[in-house]
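Run log, item B.
One chain of 220 residues. Sequence copied directly from the ordering sheet:
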Amino acid sequence: MTGLILLHGWGYGPQTWDGLAQGFGNAPVVVLDAGYFSPPDLAIPENPDGWLGVGHSLGFARLLQMDIPWRGLVGIGGFLRFCQKPGRETGTPAAVLEAMLARLDAAPEDVLARFHKRCGYRLAPLPTPGAEGLALLRADLERLRDLDLDLDLPAPARPVPTLFLQAQDDRIVPLELAREAQALLPGSRLEALDTGGHALPMTRAQDCLRLVREFLHDLG
């Protein structure tokens, strides 16, 4: 049976998937941890029937870059590029991430709280990253700043069936970035939800579960 690999985005943790992880019946589900607030765990076990990768925000880009023969991919608030680039003005100005990087060591809780507010879902209580988690948060902010997968995406990854789920009121990743990613990945499609912000797995968990289930069913 095709299993699911779930990977959260920047500033969150495995609790991102609390509303989805138990909703796939007997299918194996593995929840990864980028290590911001607890020890990292990115190990993917063997599954003879293959995996559907489901990533939130940066988690989608990270799954796409893994050397895994995915049966399919789902990007919830996903993207191939996060920051504005010359000639491509949609996205977050790099200066915003530079400002977050400058304040991260001195005031990590404040940086996270402000980010969560813009996402539309704040963790309560707000976890405090340890030294290793803080280093990983910094490294992944730099990854977000520099990310542009259209330039170096491995060719074999491009034909994988891909579903993008995107909220029209997302203040972190505008709908145009999801459309850009869809256009660059043959075989992908986009489902736009009217509301939910950038934290769809938490703010619209049941809708995400329904759409991922349907996509998994379509994979056969």
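Observations after the first pass:
- The beta strands are 3-7, 29-31, 51-56, 72-76, 162-167, 188-193.
- The domain at 3-87+142-218 is CATH 3.40.50.1820 (Rossmann fold).
Flagged for discussion on Thursday.
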